[in-house]
Amino acid sequence: MAAVAVPSGGPGGPKPPAGCEVRAATPPKGFGLFACAACPAYTEMFTEEPLFAMQHSGNRRVVAACARCCGFVRSVPLQLEVLFGESRFAPLLAALGDLPTRWQESAGEGQAVVVRCKQGCGEIYCSEACRDLHFQHSHNLLCVGPLTEDHPLLRFKYHALEHADTLLLAAQVFAFLVNRARASGGGAQVMQELMQELLCFCHAPFREACRPPPGRSKDAEFYAHTDGLVHEAAALLRAALEPHAPAEVGALFASGPSFFAEVLGLFEYNNIDLEVHSPVGPLLINRAKALAAHISTPQAMTELKQLESLLREKEWVMRCVWGEETTGIFGDEADVAQDGADAEPMDSLMKAAEQGNDAEVASAAMAQATAEVAQMSLEQLLQGAWPAMHGTALFASVARMNHSCAPNMKVAFPGNSARLTATSVLNISPGDELCICYVNQEADVQTRRRRLLEYGFTCSCSRCLSEDSATLRKAQKRLK
């Protein structure tokens, strides 16, 4: 296996949360996040807003989320319009009529609120406050609403959609830095200080930090492709931003695309997956219960049948569309083959069929999904999962947390936003390093180590060493 990059980081950066401190960890680790006080197991230690966050492009096909906070836009009609956006679902939406609006109001959600970008770019928000904050943060420089098709910003976004979502997140970082530099007096020197502040997190050039496609190594062709992708994106972004702030943008690109590549590499090591669960499913479960209580009335029976039809179509969508493209979670072929417990979510029936470039296979897969859904009871349909919001984000404190295969912390997104909650899972004493597990904690030691190589290290924690010994003993016993 080719050598992996050793990411670098340093002191400084955003202030840690209360009760925590950032300091040097035990070598070969760099810096880490440490507890300043005791904390019992299963206690919330801190909450945190992301520095930068973004919904995956593929996920936009099935979920209407706020462009700033990443929470579900509180509009049942809009969520259904997005999920059932294909023309084949037009009769379903027409038959529902104003039922989605009535469902929302009967649940105490009030009227649907959808706030859109004032400049017409298509971004949506859960509130005017989120829209205004997003504009001040970075959207003022990244909105494509008033632009022509040949503008470099539009070309940059098309390039990003074709190649990698994280290019869009890097653009958000650059726009934010420009806004912050100008608010602090402007100039190249101010920008250089802000750039160094960001590089306190582990980072390496993108070509070294990113993982190659399954089944291939980082050969010369891979490096050439990766460098070309980054160079083109950096050139387009510079052309888009420079007219707004020549001195500040000049500092960002003083070394060509180098800083842009470092930011992309920083994402590879520090970003975590966002997952915000849909509020639509629980809302419809409650509505079904209310209707069942009045099932003797023709109106309730009719509405319940319409709800059941909606749920069957939703279940079909989940089986045929939901997968890697809509979650942004791409599996590792070796993991799937070697350890089912560590397998990432399998892709949809539709995608699996399309990979064979066989329309008949795709049609058969969809027919199979239709047949399976037709056999489901209403109770089963009500319990079926709804599409979650999936995205990626950089959190200052979580980025400082090192890995452990036996972690003492876990992170989650319990509300309708990208706001993160960090909770202890073990008793923590003052001075303990706070660690999370970067990979699937249930996987075996070989799988965990293979996945952790993407972060630039080989894990030798006490759990890994113990499992190594157990594996060796089993092998020796078989040989006897």
From TrEMBL:
Q: Name the Gene3D superfamilies on file.
A: SET domain
SET domain span: 387-438
Q: Which Pfam families match?
A: SET (PF00856)
Q: Name one GO molecular function term.
A: methyltransferase activity
State the signal peptide span: none
The protein's name is SET domain-containing protein
